Amino acid sequence: MVFRLSIFGVLIFALAAVLVFAYSLMNQSKVASHQQNAAPPPPTEQILVASGPLQGGTLLQPSGIASTTMLVSAAPQDAIIDTPENRAALTGSMLRAPLAAQQPILNTGVIHPGDHGFLAAVLSPGMRAVTISVDAVTGADGLIWPGDEVDVLLTQTIPGAPDSKNIAVEQVLSNVRVIATGAELIKDPNAGANGGQSAQTVTLEVTPDQAARCIVAGTLGKLSLILHSAQGVNNKANKAQNNNQPPGAPLTVWSGDVSPALTNAVPQDSKMTTVNVLTPGGSGEFKF
């Protein structure tokens, strides 16, 4: 009798185990079916945004451009997709209105270099735009961007001057704003999307007098750019104060200032000149 009860208990336990296993399989099947029937997640895209607060009239630099993930359905219609080509095209563009941090940059919210009216929109009242030629080295090899503040230096050779004075570097302009570079301002239709080299021209925002000085300096020798620190850039009050100060002695560095060897070089033996002087009492010979 006890044996029969034991067998009966084992059968009940086995039946319960089978029922629990079957119930687990049914739940797993329902979960899998629900996952298959669930809608896919909504599509997203990477769009370009302002990395921090930007004022209207700002010339965009790479450091001012960031990206964020946004639902395609929530992104503005003219938002700019984050691609290397779009970032490059956006660099140097002018914002029409202020942007808050992480606010999308819109195609309609910028004026691109080369667009009609770009220079007129960028220039401050009473200022002019002058374009100077630079090479990859004197133009900081692509490290100078629109919006940077630079000094303009002139390097020229002085014909007939002694070795210590035959090359001079002078400061032509100080603390002027770059508003465009050749790669963006002057587009070569035959260059293609990836064509072109480091900027060979730089356009500066200057006064009429500074524009004339730049043009004359460009005919005398090679022009170079010296980049200012980012601190104080766009500080209009300080810049206006500096422009109102009377100009001091221009910076001039001679070849002898850089190379003591030119200044301390042993002069060549001077040539002796003999002159015969005729007088009523005869002739005389003088050497000097």
Give your account of this protein's structure.
By secondary structure, the chain is of the alpha+beta class. A hairpin with a 2-residue loop joins strand 11 and strand 12. It has helices spanning 2-37, 84-90, 118-122, 182-185, 208-220, 236-244, 255-258, 260-263; strands spanning 44-50, 65-71, 94-95, 110-111, 128-133, 149-157, 167-181, 201-206, 222-227, 252-254, 274-279, 282-287. The strands form four sheets. Strands 5, 6, 7, 8, 9 and 10 form a six-stranded antiparallel beta sheet that branches. A two-stranded antiparallel sheet has the order 1-2. The protein has a two-stranded antiparallel ribbon with strand order 3-4. The protein is built from eight helices and twelve strands. The chain is 28% helix and 26% strand. The protein folds into two domains: 44-111, Antifreeze-like/N-acetylneuraminic acid synthase C-terminal domain (Type Iii Antifreeze Protein Isoform Hplc 12), CATH 3.90.1210; 118-263, no CATH class. The protein starts with a helix and ends with a strand.
